[in-house]
Amino acid sequence: MRDLGLSEEEVMRGLQKMRGKDLSYDRILSSMCTPPHPIALKAHQTFQETNLGDPGLFPGSAELEQQAVRMMAELLGHPNATGYLSTGGTESNIQAIRAARNAHNSRDGNIVVPKSAHFSFDKIGDLLCLEIRKADLDGDLKVDVSSVEELIDEKTVSIVGIAGTTEFGQVDPIDRLGKLALDSGIHLHVDAAFGGFVLPFLKGSWKWDFRAEGVTSITIDPHKMGMATIPGGGLLFRHSEDLERLAAYAPYLTMARPKALTGTRSGAAAAAIWAVMNYLGKEGFTKVVDSCMDLSRRMVSGAREIGIEPVIEPVMNVVTLRMDHPEEVRADLLECCWRVSTTRSPKALRLILMPHTTSENVDLFLADLEDVLKRRA
Ligand code: 0PR
Fold it and tell me: Above pLDDT 70, what percent of the chain?
């Protein structure tokens, strides 16, 4: 650190220089994040100094958190669900599995996750000393329930289903997993980090949330399709005793039994989540999701016109285009300033059509993709 401080102008100049190195979102097709909704930014700024780690000092912020949790609980089909706002999908998944492990009271257990599970589950295995068993997928890239069943034994503390897989945006058969969990007397955690703010606004009668019997907890991320500021995550439990299993004891705080994984945590995130949900309402979110789905369909039909097929018909706003060497195509597209990602199996180019993407950019992207593929042919 320097001995003497800089002027405000010098600091700001230094910051702007670095900010200039960051990419703007418009040509990013690889991210599950998007610029926060303007109302989220305003809310965030207003609550920047608040700390939900000591909620008695910030009762207004704490009320916003409770109300945001209640809105999400209602969205997920169980208005009485309890939970808290986390830093994102990783924390929510850790905490859900920690609650399941504590309910099982075992220290050498296992969990069964789909092969498509997010890498946060590998961290969970390490952190919570659980064996991570990976179940096969079917031809549609949904988890094969019979494979899950085969992997369960008396040491299994939870099974996991994904409502919106990271790579393909697929939804596992949560209702069938729920029945299996009930029959086996174990938890079913649903990772809807991405799908949580998409699936409720799609037409169709999915049973993937608390409406499916046997679902004990759900991860839902406002900082992805919820358009809140980072870090904004959510974790909900069907039964309040599962949330209690996360409590620590801190008698000197204004809340003696905090449940979050982190100590100090941002009230600004709670304000941002509360603000976007109230500002947009179900009608506003439906428009956002409709538009992202329109763009996904536009991407797929444009790809078909240049001879590329999707791996699956998009269930959500994740489009995967099947090809042999997606990493090389990705590198070529980078030269046209497009950021895309790739999948491992089956091999594909992965595109996420987030609220920041426009139809003009989808068309420009498709034209560049066609050029890249022609050059490689
Ligand atoms: N569960 C699922 C299904 C996810 O897709 C993700 C993240 C998580 C859990 C973990 O969430 P946090 O990252 O909030 O802890 N999915 C994206 C991914 O890993 C996150 C992401 C977002 C990556 C923006 C890159 C990026 O630019 O691909």
Answer: 100
| Whether the CB of 167 sits within 6 Å of ligand 1 | no
Protein residue whose Cα sits closest to atom 20 of ligand 1: 32
Q: Does 83 reside within a domain?
A: yes
Provide the domain count of the chain: 2
Tokens of residue 363, six digits: 């068309």
Q: Cβ(166) to ligand 1 under 6 A?
A: yes
pLDDT digits (tens, 9 = 90+) for 135-183: 999 999 999 999 999 999 999 999 999 999 999 999 999 999 999 999 9
Q: Looking at residue 321, which CATH number applies to its domain?
A: 3.90.1150.10
Domain annotation covers residue 14: no
Tell me how far the alpha carbon of residue 191 lies from the centroid of ligand 1, in angstroms: 11
Residues 6+ apart with CB under 8 A from 118: 89, 90, 93, 162, 166, 191, 193
Which tens digit of pLDDT belongs to each residue from 302-324? Answer: 999 999 999 999 999 999 999 99
Domain-terminating residue out of 250, 278, 306: 278
Contact call for residues 112 and 141 (beta carbons, < 8 A): no
71 & 191 share domain: yes
* Residue 260 near residue 86, CB atoms below 8 Å: yes
Please tell me if the CB atom of residue 41 comes closer than 6 angstroms to any atom of ligand 1: no
Say whether pLDDT at 203 is over 90: no
Cα(194) to centroid(ligand 1), Å: 8
**Using CA positions, which residue lies closest to atom 10 of ligand 1?**
89
Assess whether 325 and 238 both reside in one domain: no
Q: Is the pLDDT of residue 351 over 80?
A: yes
The minimum-distance atom of ligand 1 relative to the CA of 223 is 14
Which residue has 């956002």 as its token pair?
288
Is residue 59 located within the same domain as residue 138? yes
